[in-house]
Amino acid sequence: MHEKQLLKHIEANLPSLRRSERKVAEFVLANASQVIHMRIVDLAAAVGVSEPTVVRFCRAVDCDGFGAFKLALAQHGTPSPDVTEFELSELDTVRDYAFKVFDSTIGMLKQVRDSMNPDALEIAVEALRKARRVEFYGFGASASVAIDAQHKFFRLQIPSAAHSDPHIQTMAAMSLHAGDVVVAISQSGRSQALLDAMELVRESGAFLIGLAPGATPVARACDLAIHIDVNEQTQDRHTPLPSRIAHLTVIDILAVGVAKMIGPAADLHLSKIDRGLQPLRTEE
Questions:
Q1: Closest by alpha carbon to 142, among 123, 119, 165?
Q2: Which tens digit of pLDDT belongs to each residue from 140-197?
Q3: Which helix (H) or strand (E) is 142 found in, with range?
Q4: Dihedral sign from CA coordinates of 125, 127, 132, 133
Q5: Architecture of 3-74 per CATH?
Q6: What pLDDT does 238 receive?
Q7: Within the chain, which residue ranges are assigned CATH 3.40.50.10490?
Q8: Domain 118-271 annotated CATH 3.40.50.10490
Q9: Where, residue-wise, is CATH 1.10.10.10 in the chain?
Q10: Could you tell me the pTM of the whole model?
């Protein structure tokens, strides 16, 4: 449900809401852009109601909890001034299209940032930190994201692997156990080969995290889904794919979270790696 549709839905349902829920609805209608960035405790305090009242309001407008409500509010909503459409012109100079690519990507990253569910990120970080082994699955453009993720977690001394071949994914998934974690990465959320591998992961007892657009088969098939919703234009073959950058950024967030949980030991090990790499770098 798009933001404008959600707000219209809330407005249409005002008469049927309880008095306390109506207070939440009226605050949301007047402050939608601010609510996207608020925690449930912040919204409850601002309205003067309890947190359970906020949850009841969310369910009354067909959202499964506050996180889902904020996601619905943020997704494809009113674009901020930073979000720009990417469109090439025959008259564009190098400077013109360079700025267009940067501005489009920066705007999309901010859009994804604002729709992120911090609770899902926190659960994912904890699961990755405790994992016996972590594997990253992805095809096509998502394969490069998986390889980047494996590199980051390998540096944190977490046994990890990245697989982009369906046969290897199948064998790897069948070799997993409870305590392992798989991160399934998909920019479309609809790759059948990935869904097949995910089914084997579930059968193994491993924990399954998905990075994919919301309301897609990949997101629904995960134990924990981190929704990455990017409105990509496909009509122009020159159009950049900001979802790949968004996926890489979310991987960075997860890696930073895990490093933070590990603490000083992570810093010491990364410093050791950096010193070990110095002889391989030219001084010129």
A1: 165
A2: 989 999 999 999 999 999 999 999 999 999 999 999 999 999 999 999 899 999 999 9
A3: helix 141-155
A4: negative
A5: Orthogonal Bundle (1.10)
A6: 52
A7: 118-271
A8: yes
A9: 3-74
A10: 0.70
